[in-house]
Write a structure and sequence with these properties.
single chain; 131 residues; alpha+beta; OB fold (Dihydrolipoamide Acetyltransferase, E2P); 3 helices; 6 strands; 34% strand
Length: 131
């Protein structure tokens, strides 16, 4: 193999290796408005304990009394377990109050910042989501 071909190969290989981690995961701030957290009261409809992010689906009544179906993502199950969560901590019908970083495009989705159960217990994080 010629020296020019070796150099070209190494450059291309290096660029690919450097760029892979950058595109591997989106930042929370790319999708959600981290400067405008909102707090919502709702009822859990589904709690999905799976990788890469645990999902919480809940219904919220808007100002007109219409039900809006929200979803929010949290951390991975492993990180939540280390913070005291488990796959049974939420179930359909649970009343919750959540603070989320909402979607930048106005969809009813968000990234969880804080969750309060109806008894006032806060489910927190040992490791906060990276904004």
């Amino acid at each position: 193999m010629s020296d020019k071909l070796k150099v070209a190969f190494l450059l291309i290989f290096g660029i690919v290796m450097i760029s892979r981690p950058v595109s591997a995961h989106h930042g929370v701030g790319a999708i959600y408005d981290t400067n405008r957290p909102i707090t919502l009261k709702g009822v859990v409809t589904e709690f999905v304990w799976s990788n890469p992010h645990v999902q919480i689906y809940f219904d919220v009544k808007d100002e007109q009394g219409n039900v809006v179906h929200w979803s929010c993502e949290t951390l991975s199950p492993g990180k939540l377990t280390r913070s005291g969560w488990n796959k049974n901590v939420l179930k359909p019908g649970d009343q919750i109050t959540v603070t989320v970083s909402p979607s930048k495009v106005g969809k009813p989705i968000g990234s969880l910042r804080k969750l309060l159960l109806s008894d006032g217990k806060e489910l927190g994080f040992d490791e906060m989501p990276q904004y």
